[in-house]
Amino acid sequence: MNSENPIWALISTFGLMSLFAVGGAAAAVPEMHRIAVDVHHWMTEKQFADAYAIAQLSPGPNVLIVTLIGYAVAGIPGALAATLAMCLPTALLAYYVSRLLSRPSQSRWPALIQTALVPLSIGLMAASALILAQSTDRTFAALLLTAAVAVLASVSRINPLWLLLAGGLFGFAGIV
Amino acid sequence: MSTDSAPAAQEPDQEPDQEPDHPATHAPPPGLVALFLAFARMSLAGFGGVLVFARHAIVDQHRWMTADEFNETFALCHFLPGPNIVNLSMVFGSRLRGIAGGVAAFTGLLLPPTVIMTVLAIIYARFGDVEVLRRILAGISCAAVGLLIAVVFRMMMPLLKRMDVVVLTLMLGVFVAIGVLRLPLQAVLLVAIPISIGVTYWVRRKVAA
Fold first, then answer.
1. ipTM higher than 0.85?
2. B138 and A17 in contact by Cβ < 8 A?
3. Domain containing A15: what range?
4. What's this model's pTM, rounded to 2 decimal places?
Protein backbone atom coordinates (compact mmCIF):
# COMPACT_ATOMS: atom_id res chain seq x y z
CA MET A 1 0.00 0.00 0.00
CA ASN A 2 2.89 2.31 0.79
CA SER A 3 5.99 2.71 -1.31
CA GLU A 4 8.07 3.41 1.80
CA ASN A 5 9.00 0.67 4.29
CA PRO A 6 5.80 -0.02 6.27
CA ILE A 7 7.73 -0.86 9.47
CA TRP A 8 9.41 2.52 9.39
CA ALA A 9 6.07 4.21 8.72
CA LEU A 10 4.64 2.46 11.80
CA ILE A 11 7.59 3.39 14.01
CA SER A 12 7.64 7.04 12.98
CA THR A 13 3.85 7.36 13.19
CA PHE A 14 3.36 5.81 16.61
CA GLY A 15 6.61 7.08 18.08
CA LEU A 16 5.57 10.61 17.24
CA MET A 17 1.97 10.06 18.27
CA SER A 18 2.95 8.74 21.71
CA LEU A 19 4.86 11.95 22.45
CA PHE A 20 1.67 13.92 21.89
CA ALA A 21 -0.66 11.41 23.56
CA VAL A 22 -1.33 13.32 26.74
CA GLY A 23 -4.15 11.80 28.75
CA GLY A 24 -3.64 8.14 28.00
CA ALA A 25 -4.61 5.62 25.38
CA ALA A 26 -8.30 6.47 25.09
CA ALA A 27 -7.41 10.05 24.28
CA ALA A 28 -5.17 8.90 21.43
CA VAL A 29 -7.89 6.87 19.70
CA PRO A 30 -9.14 9.70 17.43
CA GLU A 31 -5.61 10.31 16.20
CA MET A 32 -5.02 6.59 15.63
CA HIS A 33 -8.28 6.48 13.70
CA ARG A 34 -7.35 9.52 11.61
CA ILE A 35 -3.91 8.11 10.76
CA ALA A 36 -4.86 4.45 10.24
CA VAL A 37 -8.14 4.98 8.36
CA ASP A 38 -8.09 8.44 6.78
CA VAL A 39 -4.40 9.19 6.12
CA HIS A 40 -2.67 5.86 5.41
CA HIS A 41 -5.69 3.65 4.61
CA TRP A 42 -4.13 0.88 6.68
CA MET A 43 -7.57 -0.23 7.84
CA THR A 44 -11.23 0.27 6.95
CA GLU A 45 -13.67 1.90 9.38
CA LYS A 46 -15.02 -1.54 10.19
CA GLN A 47 -11.58 -3.05 10.83
CA PHE A 48 -10.69 -0.17 13.12
CA ALA A 49 -13.90 -0.58 15.13
CA ASP A 50 -13.19 -4.33 15.36
CA ALA A 51 -9.63 -3.65 16.53
CA TYR A 52 -10.95 -1.35 19.23
CA ALA A 53 -13.41 -4.03 20.35
CA ILE A 54 -10.69 -6.71 20.45
CA ALA A 55 -8.36 -4.43 22.41
CA GLN A 56 -11.11 -3.75 24.95
CA LEU A 57 -12.00 -7.39 25.28
CA SER A 58 -8.49 -8.69 25.85
CA PRO A 59 -6.41 -8.16 28.98
CA GLY A 60 -3.61 -5.65 29.27
CA PRO A 61 -3.30 -1.92 28.72
CA ASN A 62 -5.84 -0.63 26.19
CA VAL A 63 -3.08 1.08 24.24
CA LEU A 64 -2.36 -2.32 22.68
CA ILE A 65 -4.84 -1.53 19.91
CA VAL A 66 -1.61 -0.39 18.20
CA THR A 67 -0.48 -4.04 18.17
CA LEU A 68 -3.51 -4.87 16.02
CA ILE A 69 -2.94 -1.89 13.73
CA GLY A 70 0.71 -2.88 13.37
CA TYR A 71 -0.24 -6.46 12.54
CA ALA A 72 -2.71 -5.28 9.90
CA VAL A 73 0.06 -3.25 8.26
CA ALA A 74 3.07 -5.59 8.42
CA GLY A 75 2.31 -8.85 10.22
CA ILE A 76 4.14 -9.87 13.41
CA PRO A 77 7.12 -7.51 12.89
CA GLY A 78 4.62 -4.72 12.39
CA ALA A 79 2.78 -5.66 15.59
CA LEU A 80 6.02 -5.56 17.60
CA ALA A 81 7.26 -2.36 15.95
CA ALA A 82 4.01 -0.50 16.57
CA THR A 83 3.80 -1.65 20.19
CA LEU A 84 7.37 -0.67 21.05
CA ALA A 85 7.16 2.63 19.14
CA MET A 86 4.03 3.56 21.07
CA CYS A 87 5.28 2.48 24.50
CA LEU A 88 9.07 2.71 24.78
CA PRO A 89 9.95 6.37 23.99
CA THR A 90 7.51 7.85 26.50
CA ALA A 91 8.41 5.24 29.13
CA LEU A 92 12.06 6.28 28.82
CA LEU A 93 11.05 9.93 28.94
CA ALA A 94 9.04 9.22 32.11
CA TYR A 95 12.08 7.47 33.58
CA TYR A 96 14.35 10.46 32.98
CA VAL A 97 11.80 13.01 34.16
CA SER A 98 11.12 11.02 37.31
CA ARG A 99 14.85 11.00 38.04
CA LEU A 100 15.01 14.75 37.53
CA LEU A 101 12.05 15.43 39.79
CA SER A 102 12.97 12.98 42.52
CA ARG A 103 10.41 14.80 44.65
CA PRO A 104 7.50 15.63 42.30
CA SER A 105 5.60 17.64 44.92
CA GLN A 106 8.40 20.20 45.25
CA SER A 107 7.13 22.43 42.47
CA ARG A 108 3.52 23.45 41.94
CA TRP A 109 3.89 23.33 38.16
CA PRO A 110 3.29 19.59 37.75
CA ALA A 111 0.03 19.88 39.70
CA LEU A 112 -1.00 22.99 37.78
CA ILE A 113 -0.24 21.41 34.41
CA GLN A 114 -2.10 18.29 35.39
CA THR A 115 -5.18 20.31 36.37
CA ALA A 116 -4.99 22.18 33.09
CA LEU A 117 -4.83 18.94 31.09
CA VAL A 118 -7.90 17.36 32.70
CA PRO A 119 -10.59 19.08 30.56
CA LEU A 120 -8.53 18.52 27.41
CA SER A 121 -8.13 14.81 28.02
CA ILE A 122 -11.84 14.41 28.77
CA GLY A 123 -12.66 16.30 25.58
CA LEU A 124 -10.33 13.96 23.67
CA MET A 125 -11.95 10.88 25.14
CA ALA A 126 -15.42 12.19 24.33
CA ALA A 127 -14.23 12.69 20.75
CA SER A 128 -13.01 9.07 20.69
CA ALA A 129 -16.44 7.93 21.79
CA LEU A 130 -18.13 9.96 19.05
CA ILE A 131 -15.80 8.73 16.29
CA LEU A 132 -16.16 5.10 17.36
CA ALA A 133 -19.92 5.41 17.77
CA GLN A 134 -20.20 6.75 14.24
CA SER A 135 -18.48 3.66 12.85
CA THR A 136 -20.20 1.05 15.06
CA ASP A 137 -23.70 2.35 15.72
CA ARG A 138 -25.13 2.13 12.23
CA THR A 139 -28.52 0.70 13.27
CA PHE A 140 -31.00 1.84 15.87
CA ALA A 141 -30.58 -1.41 17.82
CA ALA A 142 -26.82 -0.86 17.93
CA LEU A 143 -27.28 2.67 19.19
CA LEU A 144 -29.66 1.39 21.84
CA LEU A 145 -27.12 -1.23 22.98
CA THR A 146 -24.38 1.40 23.26
CA ALA A 147 -26.68 3.69 25.23
CA ALA A 148 -27.77 0.86 27.55
CA VAL A 149 -24.16 -0.12 28.28
CA ALA A 150 -23.22 3.53 28.85
CA VAL A 151 -26.03 3.94 31.41
CA LEU A 152 -25.41 0.59 33.13
CA ALA A 153 -21.67 1.21 33.45
CA SER A 154 -22.28 4.75 34.73
CA VAL A 155 -24.70 3.87 37.49
CA SER A 156 -23.45 0.45 38.61
CA ARG A 157 -20.13 -1.14 39.47
CA ILE A 158 -20.67 -4.13 37.20
CA ASN A 159 -17.51 -5.70 35.77
CA PRO A 160 -17.04 -4.26 32.23
CA LEU A 161 -16.18 -7.70 30.92
CA TRP A 162 -19.79 -8.87 31.41
CA LEU A 163 -21.11 -5.93 29.42
CA LEU A 164 -18.68 -6.68 26.58
CA LEU A 165 -19.70 -10.34 26.58
CA ALA A 166 -23.38 -9.36 26.62
CA GLY A 167 -22.69 -7.16 23.59
CA GLY A 168 -21.07 -10.13 21.87
CA LEU A 169 -24.13 -12.24 22.66
CA PHE A 170 -26.49 -9.64 21.18
CA GLY A 171 -24.29 -9.53 18.10
CA PHE A 172 -24.25 -13.33 17.85
CA ALA A 173 -28.04 -13.37 18.03
CA GLY A 174 -28.10 -10.95 15.11
CA ILE A 175 -29.91 -8.24 17.05
CA VAL A 176 -27.44 -5.40 16.44
CA MET B 1 20.00 -11.17 38.35
CA SER B 2 20.15 -8.37 40.90
CA THR B 3 21.66 -5.07 39.86
CA ASP B 4 22.68 -3.14 42.93
CA SER B 5 23.84 -0.13 40.95
CA ALA B 6 20.25 1.11 41.22
CA PRO B 7 20.58 4.87 40.78
CA ALA B 8 16.99 5.89 41.41
CA ALA B 9 16.13 3.58 44.28
CA GLN B 10 14.54 5.71 46.98
CA GLU B 11 15.05 3.41 49.91
CA PRO B 12 18.48 2.44 51.17
CA ASP B 13 18.82 -1.23 50.32
CA GLN B 14 20.51 -2.27 53.54
CA GLU B 15 17.35 -1.64 55.57
CA PRO B 16 16.01 -5.10 56.38
CA ASP B 17 12.42 -3.93 57.15
CA GLN B 18 11.10 -6.65 59.39
CA GLU B 19 7.74 -5.18 60.44
CA PRO B 20 5.25 -6.17 57.75
CA ASP B 21 2.22 -5.38 59.93
CA HIS B 22 3.06 -1.68 60.03
CA PRO B 23 1.12 -0.05 57.15
CA ALA B 24 3.54 2.85 56.57
CA THR B 25 6.65 0.71 56.16
CA HIS B 26 7.67 -0.78 52.88
CA ALA B 27 8.13 -4.38 52.04
CA PRO B 28 11.72 -5.08 50.99
CA PRO B 29 12.28 -4.11 47.34
CA PRO B 30 11.35 -7.02 45.05
CA GLY B 31 13.77 -8.79 42.75
CA LEU B 32 13.61 -8.38 38.99
CA VAL B 33 11.75 -11.64 38.45
CA ALA B 34 9.21 -10.70 41.12
CA LEU B 35 8.69 -7.32 39.45
CA PHE B 36 8.22 -8.93 36.05
CA LEU B 37 5.73 -11.47 37.42
CA ALA B 38 3.80 -8.91 39.45
CA PHE B 39 3.32 -6.64 36.44
CA ALA B 40 2.47 -9.57 34.17
CA ARG B 41 -0.19 -10.63 36.66
CA MET B 42 -1.79 -7.19 37.00
CA SER B 43 -1.68 -6.74 33.25
CA LEU B 44 -3.45 -10.02 32.57
CA ALA B 45 -6.05 -9.27 35.23
CA GLY B 46 -6.73 -5.85 33.75
CA PHE B 47 -9.67 -6.15 31.43
CA GLY B 48 -10.63 -2.66 30.31
CA GLY B 49 -7.76 -0.91 32.08
CA VAL B 50 -4.89 -1.92 34.34
CA LEU B 51 -4.73 1.02 36.74
CA VAL B 52 -7.12 -0.36 39.36
CA PHE B 53 -5.24 -3.65 39.49
CA ALA B 54 -1.86 -1.93 39.53
CA ARG B 55 -2.81 0.17 42.51
CA HIS B 56 -4.18 -2.82 44.36
CA ALA B 57 -1.06 -4.91 43.74
CA ILE B 58 1.52 -2.20 44.46
CA VAL B 59 -0.10 -0.52 47.47
CA ASP B 60 -2.36 -3.09 49.15
CA GLN B 61 -0.98 -6.48 48.22
CA HIS B 62 2.80 -6.06 48.04
CA ARG B 63 3.16 -2.76 49.96
CA TRP B 64 5.93 -1.64 47.68
CA MET B 65 4.64 1.92 47.91
CA THR B 66 2.36 3.85 50.23
CA ALA B 67 -0.89 5.25 48.82
CA ASP B 68 0.61 8.74 48.71
CA GLU B 69 3.74 7.62 46.93
CA PHE B 70 1.60 5.79 44.40
CA ASN B 71 -0.55 8.86 43.77
CA GLU B 72 2.51 11.05 43.28
CA THR B 73 4.06 8.56 40.89
CA PHE B 74 0.84 8.23 38.95
CA ALA B 75 0.32 11.99 38.78
CA LEU B 76 3.78 12.33 37.26
CA CYS B 77 2.99 9.63 34.69
CA HIS B 78 -0.39 11.14 33.94
CA PHE B 79 0.94 14.53 32.99
CA LEU B 80 3.70 13.07 30.85
CA PRO B 81 2.75 11.95 27.35
CA GLY B 82 2.20 8.32 26.45
CA PRO B 83 0.19 5.46 27.89
CA ASN B 84 0.01 6.22 31.63
CA ILE B 85 0.21 2.73 32.96
CA VAL B 86 3.17 1.87 30.73
CA ASN B 87 4.98 4.96 31.98
CA LEU B 88 4.08 3.97 35.52
CA SER B 89 5.63 0.53 35.12
CA MET B 90 8.94 2.03 33.99
CA VAL B 91 9.04 4.75 36.68
CA PHE B 92 7.90 2.42 39.43
CA GLY B 93 10.28 -0.40 38.53
CA SER B 94 13.22 1.97 38.25
CA ARG B 95 12.48 3.59 41.61
CA LEU B 96 12.74 0.20 43.28
CA ARG B 97 15.47 -1.48 41.24
CA GLY B 98 17.06 1.03 38.90
CA ILE B 99 16.78 0.90 35.12
CA ALA B 100 16.82 -2.93 35.13
CA GLY B 101 13.79 -2.89 37.41
CA GLY B 102 12.07 -0.46 35.09
CA VAL B 103 12.70 -2.72 32.12
CA ALA B 104 11.50 -5.78 34.08
CA ALA B 105 8.22 -4.09 35.02
CA PHE B 106 7.76 -2.65 31.51
CA THR B 107 8.34 -6.05 29.90
CA GLY B 108 6.08 -7.80 32.41
CA LEU B 109 3.30 -5.34 31.70
CA LEU B 110 3.56 -5.51 27.91
CA LEU B 111 4.92 -8.88 26.82
CA PRO B 112 2.07 -11.26 27.80
CA PRO B 113 -0.79 -9.09 26.47
CA THR B 114 1.17 -8.28 23.30
CA VAL B 115 1.53 -11.99 22.60
CA ILE B 116 -2.20 -12.49 23.23
CA MET B 117 -3.05 -9.52 21.03
CA THR B 118 -0.84 -10.80 18.20
CA VAL B 119 -2.54 -14.19 18.34
CA LEU B 120 -5.93 -12.45 18.22
CA ALA B 121 -4.73 -10.38 15.26
CA ILE B 122 -3.76 -13.56 13.40
CA ILE B 123 -7.14 -15.10 14.16
CA TYR B 124 -8.90 -11.94 13.05
CA ALA B 125 -6.91 -11.77 9.81
CA ARG B 126 -7.91 -15.36 8.99
CA PHE B 127 -11.47 -15.47 10.25
CA GLY B 128 -12.45 -11.81 10.48
CA ASP B 129 -14.75 -12.17 7.50
CA VAL B 130 -16.63 -15.12 8.95
CA GLU B 131 -20.19 -13.90 9.33
CA VAL B 132 -20.74 -15.10 12.92
CA LEU B 133 -17.49 -13.53 14.15
CA ARG B 134 -18.34 -10.27 12.40
CA ARG B 135 -21.68 -10.12 14.18
CA ILE B 136 -20.17 -10.92 17.59
CA LEU B 137 -17.47 -8.29 17.13
CA ALA B 138 -20.07 -5.74 16.04
CA GLY B 139 -21.98 -6.36 19.27
CA ILE B 140 -18.82 -6.10 21.36
CA SER B 141 -17.88 -2.85 19.61
CA CYS B 142 -21.23 -1.32 20.54
CA ALA B 143 -20.75 -2.31 24.17
CA ALA B 144 -17.12 -1.07 24.16
CA VAL B 145 -18.23 2.35 22.94
CA GLY B 146 -20.87 2.40 25.67
CA LEU B 147 -18.16 1.67 28.27
CA LEU B 148 -16.04 4.52 26.92
CA ILE B 149 -19.00 6.90 27.17
CA ALA B 150 -19.50 5.81 30.78
CA VAL B 151 -15.83 6.51 31.63
CA VAL B 152 -16.04 9.93 30.00
CA PHE B 153 -19.23 10.64 31.93
CA ARG B 154 -17.67 9.64 35.25
CA MET B 155 -14.60 11.78 34.64
CA MET B 156 -16.80 14.68 33.60
CA MET B 157 -18.94 14.65 36.74
CA PRO B 158 -16.61 16.72 38.97
CA LEU B 159 -16.27 19.33 36.21
CA LEU B 160 -20.04 19.47 35.71
CA LYS B 161 -20.63 19.84 39.45
CA ARG B 162 -18.30 22.83 39.64
CA MET B 163 -19.95 24.40 36.56
CA ASP B 164 -16.69 26.09 35.65
CA VAL B 165 -17.60 27.70 32.32
CA VAL B 166 -14.01 28.15 31.12
CA VAL B 167 -13.09 24.52 31.80
CA LEU B 168 -16.26 23.20 30.17
CA THR B 169 -15.66 25.41 27.13
CA LEU B 170 -12.13 24.05 26.76
CA MET B 171 -13.43 20.50 27.01
CA LEU B 172 -16.17 21.16 24.44
CA GLY B 173 -13.70 22.91 22.15
CA VAL B 174 -11.36 19.91 22.07
CA PHE B 175 -14.33 17.58 21.57
CA VAL B 176 -15.61 19.55 18.57
CA ALA B 177 -12.16 20.09 17.04
CA ILE B 178 -11.19 16.41 17.19
CA GLY B 179 -14.52 14.60 17.13
CA VAL B 180 -16.56 16.71 14.71
CA LEU B 181 -14.05 18.69 12.63
CA ARG B 182 -11.49 15.83 12.72
CA LEU B 183 -8.52 18.18 12.97
CA PRO B 184 -5.05 16.67 13.60
CA LEU B 185 -4.29 16.05 17.28
CA GLN B 186 -0.95 17.87 17.28
CA ALA B 187 -2.43 21.09 15.91
CA VAL B 188 -5.32 21.05 18.38
CA LEU B 189 -3.11 20.34 21.39
CA LEU B 190 -0.57 22.96 20.33
CA VAL B 191 -3.34 25.54 20.68
CA ALA B 192 -5.34 24.02 23.54
CA ILE B 193 -2.54 23.16 25.99
CA PRO B 194 -1.04 26.67 26.28
CA ILE B 195 -4.52 28.20 26.57
CA SER B 196 -5.54 25.75 29.26
CA ILE B 197 -2.33 26.17 31.27
CA GLY B 198 -2.58 29.95 30.96
CA VAL B 199 -6.21 29.98 32.09
CA THR B 200 -5.53 27.63 35.02
CA TYR B 201 -2.57 29.75 36.14
CA TRP B 202 -4.61 32.95 35.87
CA VAL B 203 -7.59 31.50 37.76
CA ARG B 204 -5.36 30.26 40.57
CA ARG B 205 -3.69 33.63 40.91
CA LYS B 206 -7.07 35.29 41.05
CA VAL B 207 -8.22 32.85 43.74
CA ALA B 208 -5.02 33.35 45.74
CA ALA B 209 -5.23 37.16 45.50
1. no
2. no
3. 6-105
4. 0.76
